[in-house]
Amino acid sequence: SWVAYFQGPRCVCVGKMADIVQKNLEDMVPELEDLQQNGLFSKVEIKQIVKSRTEYEYACQRKSPNKIDYQRYIEYETNLELLRRKRKHRMGIIKLLKSDYESPRRISQIYERALFRFSQDISLWYQFIDHLESRGMIRSLRKVFPRALQMHPRNPQMWARAAAFEFSRLQDVNSSRILMQRGLRMNEDSRLLWVAFFTMEIRYIQKLLARRETLGIAAKPFEDRKEREFLQGALPAAIYRNCIGRPHLRSEVETHQDFLRNIPKPVPVYAESKGNTSRRIVSYRDHFQWLRGRVLEGLQDSLGDVCPEAWVSIAVHAQRQGERKAFAEGKHVAFEGERRAMVVFEESISALPTAQMYLTYAKFLRRRAAAYPFGHSKVPIPAKRLLSLCEEACIEGKELVNPDLYILWADTCIRIGRARKALEVLKDATSKYKSSPKAWLMLAEVYAKLGSGGLGAQTVVENALECERTLRKGLKNVPGDQSADLWIKLLLTLTACTTTAEDNKAYTAYKEKIRATYVEALNTPGVVCDTLSMSYLVWTVAAYSANFQMIKTAVEVILHVGAKSTKLGEKYPDSNVHIRCLEALNSSKCSSTDNAIMRIGEIAVERCGKKTAGIWLWLARWYLDKGNPAGAAKICWRAEKCLETDALRKNFLAEYRAMTS
């Protein structure tokens, strides 16, 4: 019959599979006997090991095994090996046992069987290599790397790792070079491989220099010019030149930065003081100064006319070089490094006169100026240069100026006590860049602190009013999706003014003004700010003493529901805001509270119920507090149906059970 037709071959396959599994288990017998004889595992534990291995063997020998079957088998054997080693150490067994080499060999065999089926899985190759390296199986590694590279020739990480193995573990620099060159033929645009080749050659030079130190010939001049050039980094420099010969790599500043990052730092040279054991740095020895200079020149030639970050890297190098020299000579470290960096930046704004380059230089000067104690008598050199730089940018043309440069300019003026100049700068910024929220915000802060005259002579109320006028003017010009910070500053200003109210009438007027401002802010198209929403909710509860009607109105505005909202259909606040709104409604004791909570709860689960369990848990807890377990059970049933991932459902059920237990 057709049933026998299909069952026959399957029985033959099952029989073959059972024979293979039985053969593999029989090969484990000497090891298991050794474990039992040495007392590492009991007879019961040995039986359990055999049972577990049988299950894993059948899972791996079936017709279509999954990768997870092999990984579980490997995990089991790895944990078993860790347990065996701990017990051996605890029992004080020093001699080598049969299980000491059988267990790593078995894990390697499982990896081999897995890779026979899943050779295209690069992560499995990495796991196998990690296992071999952790067990020190050098011979196996020498066979595995060629196979891995044959299967994955387009993987730069594998080429770099194979070369690192040859260089570090086998001490074979020629083989590692061959591997790097072959890898670069296959992956010539791989930045990782070029940098790895560069780093490997530097490590080799370091080994040769250390050898000269050990032999006592470090100070001896080189007899051969080629040897001198090689030890200075001629080969790494050639690798760098070949790398940046590729236009794709040449145009990336990260490429040059990676090369610079892998050049060793200068080594300090110490001198012992007489009668004192403490050591003092007298100089720095930089074996790779020439190489570093070549990389910096390549960076400047490649990107000096297009990329400000290139000049930042060059300036940082010059700054560190100046600091090291000043430290060795006993001079002021910060001044010398600062001076050298400023020289580089001066060259940068000549070679790359763009707004971004001017801003980058200004940020550096601002950081350096912040390290000085500011006073009205003496202005630091970086602060002076920052002021003159901003003035030069304004004179040169509008294309060299942006709002951030104006803000740095005004901030520096305030710190050195030139408030009037700061006001002039910010007024100029807000007139040229009316849609910049940062400029309006800083101008308002200056008014709030110093007044319109810049001397702080006005009263607090007058300063606040001037600040409010500035912010409202800014809100008319700034797009809604960028105006959240301006609204928050305006509301903070209005809230601070309530402390100056002389009577209840004035306080009530301020309160109504704040409420109207909150409503206006949250109904402004484009404004979605959870901080603003939370602030409105907290303020409403505190200002109106848990008044249900006022809280309900605030919730409708915040969540964009009801007649008070003009933003229906826009992006809604997150789940935390919805939960806080439910808590605020629950805090007001009123006959209509329950209906409002159920209504807002339905809106909340409709918007956020698929991606978060917090709203469901809050509603379930609310029903339980109301003495309605049936309502909580219904919420639980709906949550299981609505939550979109198994992890969310599992976490929800765990917390729900803890809540109801």
Task: Provide structural commentary.
The radius of gyration is 36 Å and the shape is flat. Helix 16 packs antiparallel against helix 17, helix 26 packs antiparallel against helix 27 (548-559) and helix 30 packs parallel to helix 32 (646-660). A two-stranded antiparallel ribbon has the order 1-2. It has helices at residues 2-27, 29-37, 43-61, 67-91, 98-117, 122-135, 138-151, 156-168, 173-186, 191-215, 225-232, 234-244, 247-250, 253-261, 289-303, 308-329, 333-351, 355-370, 381-396, 403-415, 419-432, 437-450, 460-477, 484-497, 504-522, 530-543, 548-559, 575-587, 593-608, 614-625, 629-642, 646-660; strands at residues 267-272, 279-285. It is built from 32 helices and 2 strands. The chain is an all-alpha fold. Helix content is 74%, strand content 2%.
Brief summary of the model shown:
This protein is mostly helical. Helices cover 74% and strands 2% of the residues.
Furnish the topology, listing elements before pairings:
Blueprint (H helix, E strand, L loop, with lengths): L1 H26 L1 H9 L5 H19 L5 H25 L6 H20 L4 H14 L2 H14 L4 H13 L4 H14 L4 H25 L9 H8 L1 H11 L2 H4 L2 H9 L5 E6 L6 E7 L3 H15 L4 H22 L3 H19 L3 H16 L10 H16 L6 H13 L3 H14 L4 H14 L9 H18 L6 H14 L6 H19 L7 H14 L4 H12 L15 H13 L5 H16 L5 H12 L3 H14 L3 H15 L1
Antiparallel strand pairs: 1-2
Helix pairs in contact: 1-3, 3-4, 4-5, 5-6, 6-7, 8-9, 8-10, 9-10, 10-12, 12-15, 14-15, 15-16, 16-17, 17-18, 18-19, 18-20, 19-20, 20-21, 21-22, 22-23, 22-24, 23-24, 24-25, 25-26, 26-27, 26-28, 27-28, 28-29, 30-31, 30-32
